[in-house]
């Protein structure tokens, strides 16, 4: 379903971090969904830990399988800083959801921003020799080259 990627940060599972299963809606608040397939997503342990540390749940949180979901609809990644921000062209509601998702999954930690900058430079230096699917953080590179 996610090509062995974290459903939230797009990191390569088993390489970037350990593989886990994320309960999108937490078990504590939604026990009836604890084993519901639509509530379970492959995730890295970093995203899972960040979500638990940063509040675990908010109605605005973006599910990665939402109909019509595209990274560029909600987010913009600055290749110079590696920071993910709400897409300034998005609706106010979509920008708010992007902020919630970025905050809860810790998508702008220093380490993650640095990793995105490194991957963008790697992609640019390779001049097409590196396939997007080989990169950690495919989604933002795809948005930048589109």
Write the layout of secondary structure elements.
Blueprint: E1 19-23, E2 40-44, H1 45-53, H2 71-74, E3 75-77, E4 84-86, H3 92-104, H4 110-126, H5 138-145
Antiparallel strand pairs: 1-2, 3-4
Give the overall form.
Answer: globular
**Unreliable stretches covering 5 or more consecutive residues:** none
Measure the end-to-end span. 23 Å
Overall number of domains:
1
Structural class: alpha+beta
Number of strands: 4
Q: Whole-number radius of gyration?
A: 15 Å
Overall mean pLDDT: 88
Tell me the fraction of residues in β-strands, as a range.
5-15%
Biggest sheet overview: 2 strands, antiparallel
Count helical runs.
5
**SSE series:** EEHHEEHHH
Strand order of the largest sheet: 1-2
- Helical proportion, percent range: 25-40%
Description:
This protein is an alpha+beta fold and 146 residues long. The chain has one domain. The protein has helices at 45-53, 71-74, 92-104, 110-126, 138-145, and strands spanning 19-23, 40-44, 75-77, 84-86. It has a two-stranded antiparallel sheet with strand order 1-2. Strand 3 (75-77) and strand 4 (84-86) form a beta hairpin. The longest helix is centred in the last third of the chain and has 17 residues, at 110-126. The radius of gyration is 15 Å and the shape is globular. 29% of the residues are buried.
